[in-house]
Amino acid sequence: MGLINSSLITRIQRNHGLEHATIHLLSRRNGNLSLVGRSDWNGFTLYGPVDTAEVKHAAQEALRRLRQGEAELAVHPRCGTVVATTGLLTGLAAFVAISLDASRGRFRWATIPAAILAATLAAIVAQPLGLLLQERFTTTGQPGNLEIRNVSVNPAGNLITHRVETVQ
To answer: Which of 18, 113, 144 is closest to 75 using CA atoms?
Structure first.
């Protein structure tokens, strides 16, 4: 069994998918909600100002809807996978554009527009690619035997975190 098929990776993918589905549902109920999530093999943590009862209800509803086949809820456009894909591709595109010109002997400021164009095109490609990477590798919309064990809150000053613990 390879690393990508290990039970630990599968647990993280399921929790990551549940995290995204929960954020989708919370965002639909609260239009201007700003949340950040982080998943691991034991569940996920949400960072942001949201009511604990809403988190619990959204997580349970998200799990139910994933089980009913709404796998698209597991993919989120503001996921770190999309951000990382965009950063990698835009940086690489700009580097290649500048390097191609620098191979002629020296850096020229006239290379900057080509680097900007290359980075912009890479950013356009990165969005659908990042979503595809999420769907195929970093999340799953198939929760399997995933169950929510507990939802807890940890207010620390102005930062409110909710921990959604799962078992599989």
So the answer is: 18
Q: CA-CA distance, 78 to 136, in Å (whole number)?
A: 16
pLDDT digit string (tens) for 53-71? 999 999 999 999 999 999 9
**To 10 degrees, the CA torsion angle through 84, 87, 88, 91?**
-170
pTM of the model: 0.90
CATH fold of the domain at 3-78+139-167 = Threonyl-tRNA Synthetase; Chain A, domain 2 (3.30.980)
Find the distance separating the first CA and the last CA of the chain, reported in whole Å. Answer: 19
Domain parsing of the chain, residue ranges: 3-78+139-167, 81-136
Average pLDDT, the chain: 93
pLDDT tops 70 at residue 3: no
